[in-house]
Amino acid sequence: MEEEEIKNILERYKDGKASGAEKALLENWYLTYQEPGDDELDLEARSKDLDVILLNLEKAYRKKSIKLWPGFAAASVILLIALGFYFYRPSAQILNMEESVVNQGIKPGSNKAYLTLSDGRRISLTDASSGEVAKQSGIRITKNAEGQLIYTVIESDVTGAAVYNTFETPKGGKYQVCLPDGTKVWMNAASTLKYPASFATFNQRIVNLDGEAYFEVSKDKAKPFIVITKKQNVKVLGTYFNINAYHDEPDTKTTLLEGSIELNNDTDVKLLKPGEQAETTESRILVSVADTDQALAWKNGDFVFEGASLRTIMRQISRWYDVEVSYEGQIADLKFGGSISRTKNITAVLRVLELTKGVHFKIEGRRILVMP
Hints:
Blueprint: H1 3-14, H2 20-31, H3 43-60, E1 65-67, H4 78-88, H5 99-103, E2 110-111, E3 114-116, E4 122-124, E5 131-136, E6 139-143, E7 149-153, E8 164-169, E9 173-178, E10 184-187, E11 191-196, E12 205-216, E13 225-228, E14 233-236, E15 240-245, E16 252-258, E17 261-264, E18 269-272, E19 276-280, E20 285-289, H6 292-295, E21 302-309, H7 310-321, E22 324-327, E23 335-341, H8 346-354, E24 360-364, E25 367-371
Parallel strand pairs: 1-23, 2-9, 7-9, 12-13, 22-25
Antiparallel strand pairs: 3-4, 3-8, 5-6, 6-7, 8-11, 9-10, 10-12, 11-12, 12-15, 13-14, 14-17, 15-16, 16-19, 17-18, 19-20, 21-23, 24-25
Helix pairs in contact: 1-2, 2-4, 3-4
């Protein structure tokens, strides 16, 4: 963006006359801004411009229901400009955050996973080199250059007793696995998937999930693919869907992108169509229109919140950054909406939440203390 264009948009922003597109341009400029020493604009003048933006941010966050942006389509500046402001002026006293947070850059999660074979061997895929990881029951397990785990049948007739593998991502980890039938699975942090090393001897392709995963199921009409979680079973033939089934979440959320799936628990059975989401508890299955951007945000490298409670957000932060979270005092019942990249250090995420003025954080080692 040219210097004169930046100045003009900043002026219109300060006057409240910037269009949605101009706000988006301004947002992008701040987020992709170069090093603080860059002299594209005069430092003092730019500092004053940022102060105007911060003032508007603070006014916006005084409402009880917090919107980190007022409209996704408009790409408004409230959340993302705040991030750009923080990264541009990290030493500024923008927020009343404990100093320990500023000095501790807890890094985001990355590709980390463990594979436990049927004989009890536990393999760290983080440390494993590309190539063959293991071989069992006519199946070769390899890790490719992109870090994906791949199962390949190397014997035309796989016989004998079924053997099961357990694939797990720790807190602060994510990974992708290609199952023996060609089904692709993206695993979110703190998730576990148990499955047979080969589906050849089964009439159904059954896997067990605890946590969150996105599935692209290979089509096989003769062998339905079934995902078993604590609160539901999901039956498919070939489709794309996401399941959030963490044990510490109040319900299990299943979001369908393509194809069709059948869900059942002890009391109910539902069919999902593309663009729908099911929320399953032990007593009911509630189907509604899905926010697919929010459901797949983790897979696409983002946090996306829409009316999310602070505790819901902190559970996601805990899993992704591998930290413990505790609460002190009476925390306001705030709802948040907005987005931030999961590649940011934890400090950036906490700073944005602190803009609400309703919550503060202190980091002690890998423990986050949440305070009013």
